[in-house]
Amino acid sequence: MPPLRAREAQLINAIGLLLGLEPRALDDELRPPRLPPATPRLVGVGLPATLLQRRPDIREAVARLHAALAEVGEAEAEFYPDVNLIGDINVQSITAKKLFRASSTQWILGPTVTIPIFEGGRLRGNLALKESRHREAAIEFQKALLRAWQEVDDALTAFAQAQKRRVAAGRATVQDKIALDAAKQRYREGLVDFLNVNESLAQLLRSENELVQSEVDVASDLVRLYRALGGGWEIAE
Q1: Which domains are present in the chain?
Q2: Which of 13, 20, 86, 92 shows a CA-CA span of 20 to 30 A to 112?
């Protein structure tokens, strides 16, 4: 029990840390023993393509890909002439008295055109750089998508197999209880010694521990599946 009590205290403090609370703030709420919530047999995960969009790493990869594509467009736009409409006003006079008269004022209004004729090497290099960054962002997006797909598939498989182990452990526990009752009956009738009863009891305890561990595995795999899917789905009873 002492190692289990220490682990229990660590987990309670970990939950308190996530909630921004001091250590042991949740002792009164979490220490009393209670049955864990039942895990569902089936999980309605919906369409994988829709669920993967909820993952933050996928959204980040998509945003980086869009930003890299926009930078490529900006680099391509630098090859085209740049037209600006500007206006200017000048005041010029020989004497100070005539400085602010209308005849001393000059207006200039018209477009200016900038043609990147002698910057082709720099612009081509900049475009090549932006295109390479776009290809890199596309590769990273593909890697993030494949990694998410793998995590979802692994989590689904683990959750299904953990439930099978739980069913097998439950059947083994029932059979070991029957075996223990039979050993006790034979002991009372003097057919076997108490060592057979003790061995049957030990086997039952091992099966019960296996059943409890399988329950923990099912719950943990369900949490991993929720994380892999990015949340946002509902359990289908």
Answers
A1: 1-34 (no CATH), 43-65+141-237 (1.20.1600.10)
A2: 92
